[in-house]
Amino acid sequence: MTETEKNELFEKYNDRTHVYGRIACIVTLILLIGAPFVMGLYLGAMPSMPAFGKAFLAVGIVWFVSCIAEYLVYTPMLGAGGSYLAFMTGNLINMKIPCAVNARDIVGAKTGTPENEIISTLSIATASLVTVVVLALGVALLIPLQPILQDPALQPAFENVVPALFGAMAYKYFRNNMKIAVIPLTVMSLLFIFVPSLTSSTSFMILPSGAIAIGIAYLMYRKRYKVVANED
Q1: If you ran DSSP here, which 8-state letter would residue 151 be given?
Q2: Are 77 and 97 within 8 A, CB to CB?
C-alpha cells in the first residue's frame, strides 16, 4: 500500500469515527441528563427547576475551565477515536491516559500519527471493557470483600494508589525531557506546598502547568531553529 492510499484510508476511517463518535456522544448526553428526570417523574420527586438551574450553573462554571484544559491536553494524545471513548467512559487520569500512553510506548507509535490513533482507540476500548468486568465483579463481591476493604490498616494504601501510579509514570517522561519538565514540576510543587488547598483542584492546575511546559518547549524550539538557520 502506497503512502497516498494509506492516507486516504485513514481519512475515511477518521470520518466514520467522527460520525459514530458524535452520535454516541449525543446519545450518552441524553441518557446522562434524561435518566435523573425520568426517575424523578416516575417517582414523583422532581426537583425545583430554578433550583436545579442555579445548582447546575454553580457546578458548571467551576468545571468549565477544567473541561477545556482536559480537552486541549488529552485530545492530541488520544486522537479522535480514543478521545470519544475516553470522554464518554470517564476515568481518564486514573486509567485511560496511562493505558493509552503505555500502549503507544510499547508499539513505538508517535503522537499525531495514524498508528497512535489506532493504538489509543484499541487500548482505551480494552481498558473500558476491563473496567466494566472488574466493576461488575466488584459489585457482586462487595459484601464478601467489605471487611477487607474497610480494614483500617489498608486505608493509607488506598489513599496513595493514584500518587504512586502517576509518580512512577511521570518519572519516565521527566527523565526524557528534564529541560521541559523541571520548571513546571518545581513551580507546581512549591505552589502545592505553600497553598495546600490547591491539592483538591489538580484538574484546574493542568492548565497553567501545561502552559508553562508548552511555552518552554516553544522557546527551546525557537532557539534550536535559530541555531540551525545560522549554521545554514
Answers
A1: -
A2: yes
| Other beta carbons less than 10 A from residue 198's beta carbon | 14
Which of 151, 146, 111 has the alpha carbon at shortest distance from 100?
A: 111
Go through 29-42 and write b for each residue having 16 or more CB atoms within 10 A of its CB, e for each that does not: eeeeeeeeeeeeee
The contacts of residue 110 (CB under 8 Å, 6+ apart) are: 104, 116
* Crossing angle for the helix pair 3-43 and 114-140, to the nearest 10 degrees: 30
- 15 Cβ contact partners less than 8 Å away, ≥ 6 residues apart: none
Residue 98: CB atoms within 10 A of its CB come to 17
pLDDT digits (tens, 9 = 90+) for 168-193: 777 767 777 788 888 888 888 888 88
Side-chain-side CA neighbours of residue 106 (13 Å): 9
Q: pTM surpassing 0.85? A: no
Segment 117-131 mean pLDDT: 89
- In this predicted model, which residue has the larger pLDDT, 38 or 111? 38
**Where would I find the beta strands (DSSP E) of the chain?**
none
Give dist(CA 22, CA 10) in Å, integer: 18
| 70 closest CA partner among 100, 54, 40, 92 | 92
